[in-house]
């Protein structure tokens, strides 16, 4: 792991959209997610769970995505050539990404606890992205329509009534790093009340 300062990592990290086909060694993935577990979480519940799809394991996952897109109308359910080509292109694009990490947590019936757990999982995800960057590993935090499809949850072995999918992280070594996009001055976002 490089010794990138945390402030540098925060400013330099980018969401990666194109990846090299080379897989990340398991020990590095383990280290990335181990550091991520130091995210703040209420009552030390550590609510995050991860299912990693890679190698041949990506096939069923990607088929579940395609079926979901067809169910929700993003891809036609017809068998015409244009639709077949779209499915092939999308499937190949997803297959070329070395790792897909499905990150989810068990829903708490208490709304406050649910929000606390969701916030903790988001902190875990951001930690993972920052740590990954110090290893030269890129991630894309995706929140896509199929995550809200209960049938998709079933297809990946979850129960939509019991589990909330927080994100799917696309992971790999960056093929291209996007240019930075300047941020709005915090002066436009920060309100200070003194009395």
Major pleated sheet:
4 strands, antiparallel
Q: What count of structural domains?
A: 1
Mean pLDDT across the residues is: 96
Question: What letter string, H or E per element, gives the SSE order?
Answer: HHEHHEHEHE
Considering DSSP H and I runs of 4 or more, what fraction of the residues is helical? Answer: 25-40%
CATH architecture label: 3-Layer(aba) Sandwich
Distance between the termini: 47 Å
- Globally, the shape reads globular
Portion of residues in beta strands equals 5-15%
Q: Give the helix tally.
A: 6
Task: Describe it.
By secondary structure, the protein is of the alpha+beta class. The chain has one domain (6-188): NADH Oxidase. 39% of the residues lie in helices and 15% in strands. It has 6 helices and 4 strands, in the order ααβααβαβαβ. A 4-stranded antiparallel beta sheet has the order 1-2-4-3, covered by helices on one side. Helix 2 packs across helix 5. The longest helix is centred in the middle third of the chain and has 24 residues, at 111-134.
């Amino acid at each position: 792991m490089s010794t990138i300062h945390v402030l540098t990592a925060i400013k330099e990290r980018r969401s990666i959209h194109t990846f090299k086909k080379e897989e990340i060694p398991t020990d590095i993935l383990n280290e990335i997610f181990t550091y991520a577990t130091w995210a703040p979480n209420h009552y030390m519940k550590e609510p995050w769970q991860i299912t990693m799809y890679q190698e041949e394991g990506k096939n069923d996952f990607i088929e579940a995505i395609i079926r979901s897109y067809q169910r929700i109308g993003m891809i036609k359910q017809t068998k015409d050539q244009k639709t077949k080509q779209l499915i092939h292109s999308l499937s190949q694009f997803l297959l070329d990404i070395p790792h897909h990490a499905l990150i989810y947590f068990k829903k708490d019936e208490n709304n406050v606890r649910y929000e606390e757990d969701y916030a903790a999982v988001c902190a875990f995800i951001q930690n993972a992205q920052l740590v990954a960057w110090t290893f030269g590993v890129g991630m894309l935090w995706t929140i896509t329509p199929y995550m809200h499809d209960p049938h998709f949850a079933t297809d990946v072995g979850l129960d939509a009534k019991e589990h909330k999918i927080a994100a799917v992280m696309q992971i790999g070594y960056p093929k291209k790093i996007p240019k930075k996009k300047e941020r709005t001055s915090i002066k436009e976002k920060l309100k200070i009340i003194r009395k």
